[in-house]
Design brief:
The chain contains 16 helices and 4 strands. It has helices spanning about 5, 10-30, 35-45, 45-65, 65-70, 170-205, 210-225, 225-235, 245-255, 260-275, 280-285, 290-300, 305-325, 340, 350-355, 360-380, and strands spanning about 90-95, 95-110, 115-140, 145-150. It has a 4-stranded antiparallel β-sheet. A hairpin with a 3-residue loop joins strand 3 and strand 4 (about 145-150). Helix 6 packs antiparallel against helix 7 and helix 11 packs antiparallel against helix 12. The protein is globular. The protein starts with a helix and ends with a helix.
Length: about 375
């Protein structure tokens, strides 16, 4: 109907026709949209998954720019601030909104227990600022700078947003750097599991027969072994003389050895369902090689399911590294991870006097919950029948 005739119709009929046109346009967009666009549209409806995506994106930005976000060097020792409590940031003074500030700390040593006790020093007002100058470092390991996201304006006074540890090191700065290690080791371990799972699972599901039987028996044998004791045994076998970088890759390999079986089962099931489909038979008849059929035709058809499965697997690898490091069998100083930070919380008496030392456990919980919600959203979005 032309615009001139449409203008002569009653208002409610015009609204109904406009709604029908929008519905038809939406149906045409859905009919012509790619698989990834349809997946994104379904994923946006999952509010918890969207929030989790934002949380994880923020944490990854913190991990990438850890030196910029952390106000201090995570290895800097301050003997006069051992077990300093978190300092409260104030935004209101005398009933009015003001620039963020905090008060200094006065410390005294108890003669009986030789424990350092801190009290607020209201005569020492410490103003905070954004993009302040601090200790020099190399951003991304390349760019020399001394710019920090936040800190004290004069650059000489110390603050402890989340408190400090037994050596007076700033806990917030150490947690920022731990985010980089813990998140990266989870991704690295899952990447190795992806290679093993897709390769062995694809061979098992595509070829079947004796090859399938051997691979499935291997998977069942590995799944029958308790994960944590095996991780502990393999981690304990890492030589103490290895440099930190070697230990990092060794722990990543240990976490990957048991993490590929679930992915292999998923890939095998999909290959069993797809190998008799028409498009696979057509590719085989046209003379395509087995390698081309697997990597160009079969794998891309369910790559969204693989991504969803990987997202649900990453939290397990992060928890594995945290557990090993907490027990002293994983990463060690000078590498900083959440498991390494939680080693200070093994002593009940220490936690009773410095409860802020368990803060890294709360961040690990946040990461695991965010990954689980994100994985649920991706799994629902990748399901064509959802």
């Amino acid at each position: 109907m032309s615009a001139s005739h449409l203008g002569t119709l009653p208002k409610h009929i015009q609204d109904e026709l406009a709604a029908l046109e929008r519905e038809e346009a939406s149906e045409r967009a859905v009919a012509t949209a790619s698989q990834w666009r349809l997946m994104w549209w379904r994923f946006r409806k999952h509010s918890l998954a969207m929030v989790s995506l934002g949380v994880l994106a923020t944490l990854f930005l913190v991990a990438i720019f850890a030196e910029f976000v952390a106000p201090y060097n995570p290895m800097a020792v301050h003997a006069t601030r051992t077990y300093a409590p978190p300092q409260v940031i104030y935004l209101i003074e005398h009933g009015r909104l003001t620039w963020p500030f905090t008060y200094g700390l006065k410390s005294t040593v108890e003669v009986e227990t030789m424990r350092r006790v801190y009290t607020l020093d209201y005569s020492q007002r410490i103003e905070l600022g954004l993009f302040v100058r601090g200790e020099p470092y190399r951003l991304l390991g390349v760019i020399p700078t001394d710019l920090r996201l936040f800190g004290t304006r004069d650059g000489t006074q110390l603050i402890s947003v989340l408190g400090s540890d037994r050596l007076g090191r700033d806990l917030f700065s150490r947690m920022v750097h731990a985010t980089r290690i813990s998140l990266s080791i989870g991704l690295a371990a899952v990447a190795l599991s992806l290679v093993l799972g897709v390769t062995l699972g694809g061979i098992s599901g595509y070829f079947g027969g004796r090859v399938d039987m051997l691979i499935q028996r291997l998977i069942e044998f590995i799944d029958a072994i308790p994960s944590l004791p095996l991780w502990m045994g393999l981690s304990a076998a890492i030589p103490l003389t290895w440099p930190p970088l070697w230990v990092y890759f060794a722990i990543t390999l240990v976490l990957s050895l048991l993490g590929w079986t679930g992915m292999a089962r998923v890939v095998r099931g999909r290959f069993l369902a797809l190998r008799e489909e028409d498009f696979v038979m057509a590719a085989r008849v046209s003379g395509s090689s087995e390698r081309r059929i697997i990597f160009r035709h079969m794998l891309p058809s369910f790559v969204s399911h693989i991504i969803a499965s990987l997202t649900l697997t990453i939290p397990g690898r992060i928890l594995g590294e945290t557990s090993l490091s907490f027990l002293g069998l994983g990463l060690k100083e000078p590498i900083i991870s959440y498991g390494v930070l939680l080693q200070d919380a093994q002593n009940v008496r220490t936690v009773a006097t410095a409860p802020w030392l368990i803060t890294p456990a709360l961040v690990v919980m946040l990461i695991v919950i965010a990954y689980n919600f994100l994985g649920d959203g991706l799994r629902d979005a990748a399901d064509p029948y959802a």
